[in-house]
Structures are given as C-alpha cells and as structure tokens.
Amino acid sequence: MKAIIIDDSTAAIETLADKLKKYEDIQLVGTATNGNIGLNLANEVCPDVMFLDIELPDMSGVEFLEQINVTLNEHCQVVMYTGYPQYMLPAFRNNAFDFLLKPIDDKELDNIINRIRHTQNKHSAQTDLDGIIKQRSDNKLLFYTNSVDFRLVHIKDIGIFQYNHEIRVWEVVIAGRKTPIRLKRSVNNETLLGIDERFIQVSQRYVININYLLEVNDNKCQFYPPFDKIDYVKVGRLFRKKLIERFCSL
Q1: Which tens digits make up the pLDDT trace of 41-51?
Q2: Which of 56, 130, 215, 227 could form a disulfide with 35 if both were Cys (CB 3.0 to 4.6 A apart)?
Q3: How far apart are CA 123 and CA 126, in angstroms?
Q4: CA-CA distance, 32 to 45, in Å (whole number)?
C-alpha cells in the first residue's frame, strides 16, 4: 500500500517514517510539510494511506480534509494524527478513517494498520466485465486491448466510448491521450454501461461520461475540459429522454 505523510514537523515525519518501515506492505512514497504541497502530492500519487497532521502552516488538517474529499479517490484511508484529542470529532465528521495521538503508541499504530489492511482487502475485489477488469478499490480499469496487451485507466479520465464501424470495435477516449484506445472485440455497449453509473449511452455509437457533459446544443454534446474539443457526439432520438432524465438528476 502506498502511503504519504503530511506534517509541518520534519522530525515528526522522520519518526513516523521510521515506524512504518516495519510494515512490509506499506511503502512511503512521499511527504509534505504544508497543506498545498500535500494536496498536490495526494493527487499525484493517489495514496492508499495518508497520515495527516492537524496543524499545518497554511491550513488546518480539517480544512485539508474538506478539500481532499472532493478530489481524492475514495479508497484512500486518512489517519489524522496530532497531540490534540479535541480534534477527533471534526476529523471523523470529514471522513477520516482513524485518529492517532502523538506521541505515537506502537501498539495503537499496529491496530490502525491492521484495520486499514482489513478495509483494503474487503474492497480490493475485481469485477471481470468481459474484456475489462474493474478494480473497485481505486476506480481503475484494466482494458485488455488484445489477447496480450492491456492499459490501466482511471474512470475519471474517461470522456467517451465510441464505436468504430470500420474495424467493428469500441474505443475509449481518455484525457491526455491524442488517439483512442481500441478495446477487445468482446466488449459491447452493455459491458461499458456496466462499468459505472456515470456512463450513459446517447446513441448507437457513443457512450459518454455524463460528469463531463456541459450541454446539448443543436443535438450535439458539448463537454467540459479536457474533452471540450470533442464536437461530434450526436444524441440519438431513442436515447434523448433517458439522457435528459439523468442530466436533470445531477
């Protein structure tokens, strides 16, 4: 499991980092000494475990949690650690996984790590969707592009799926990649719709990530960045009603 530490005290970081070395399944991949650097670090490495100090120089740990809850993957377990027990309730109200008091008690750290392991194991099961494997613990998809090749993609980076009539396969358009990824021939529209509720079919040829849908103008879908350059997705007559219902429910 990937872990990061966010604490304004380098001495506290070193102490906790040293204690984490005994856990073979915990890999410390980064540290930060203020909230803004910590936010960037968390978004960059997508940790499984985050140790977060309450008192940071630019924001409180609770304020940090309020921001990170919007952007961080839901699988990340946030452990608040501080010498001030009065912050326990606000931490839990902002979805902290656990609370660790300073100075760190080794037995209590053991208990927390074991609880994290139990939670990760419970949610790490995979769903095989006929040519696509979904890892529920981190919302990533493993696309088998042919019999031997594959590509790992985060769900939030998917804009649309489009059917290529010339080669008779579905393709996925993802953020940061100029060309679509071709999927296995066994993948069909039902497979794509079964990945996540944010995907909805708007025509025989297109399945979109509705979270990126800005509007439908002149029967064409207009998307938020980074998919705002896509201007060719038309809404089919048979799919319009369902799209409107889903769009209005957001």
Answers
A1: 988 888 889 99
A2: 56
A3: 9
A4: 12
